[in-house]
Amino acid sequence: MSFEQLQYAVASHVATITLNRPDRLNALTRVMEAEIRLAMEQADADPGVRAIILTGAGRGFCAGMDMDELAVLPPDDIRAQQWMRPYDMNRRADYQTRYSYFPAIGKPVIAAVNGAAAGLGLIMALYSDIRFASKTAVFSTAFAKRGLIAEHGIAWILPRVVGQAHAADLLFSSRKIAAEEALGIGLVNRVTEPEALLEEALAYARDLAGNVSPRSIRIMKRQLWEAPYQTLGQAIADANQEMFLSIQSADFKEGIEHFQQRRPAAFTGE
């Protein structure tokens, strides 16, 4: 599949999705929004892909919605059915909406934030599983400075990542924070030199693709994203059931055998 506003490449079992409007700091358009979803679905359906990296071309990750489009955006676009279609009928409805579908992808999504991540750009990073940032990355919610509100579930996800007080600060003030502060409050997992960002993200993704069970990651990712809706007892019951199934899986057998035989793993995801 070819794309107009992003680049899509697969190598070493890792799909890299690169937002490609560098002259506009990869500001989001409705075309790009649709293409990101198609690219994510393509990577999820590809058995040759075991991890996904989302990054931006040039100096920006994603500077939010393109202001030219935002100025003429009809109010009812926010609820348009074309954006709200279910991704996976087996996943909870909360993870089927316009931007919250990243958790429904059965593979780890790693945001490699190379520059400005504002508004919707920050939301995409938050719905990713892991976030790497360049030292040049800058983060901002931006909404309050545009007369908007906490969009697309950011009032739910941001406090779970950085805590209630940090979330209130970032939402109310819309101030910009640099990568080191983002690391300090837990917004990102790792900060790198700008020239090393993509290679470090790729190295991490390749490690996941080559050395751990795709089946284990798929189940663990579902567990992590389901946990906010469960009691401890429900999470334990779910884990017990999944443990029963995992012990019968081909990946469990391979996990034991490659350890005993002192050889590289050859997981199949089954």
Automatic annotation (TrEMBL):
Xref: CDD domains: crotonase-like
Pfam families in the record: ECH_1
Annotated signal peptide: none
Superkingdom to which the source organism belongs: Bacteria
One GO MF term attached to the UniProt entry: catalytic activity
Name of the protein this chain belongs to: Enoyl-CoA hydratase
Source organism per UniProt: Pollutimonas bauzanensis
Lineage: Bacteria, Pseudomonadati, Pseudomonadota, Betaproteobacteria, Burkholderiales
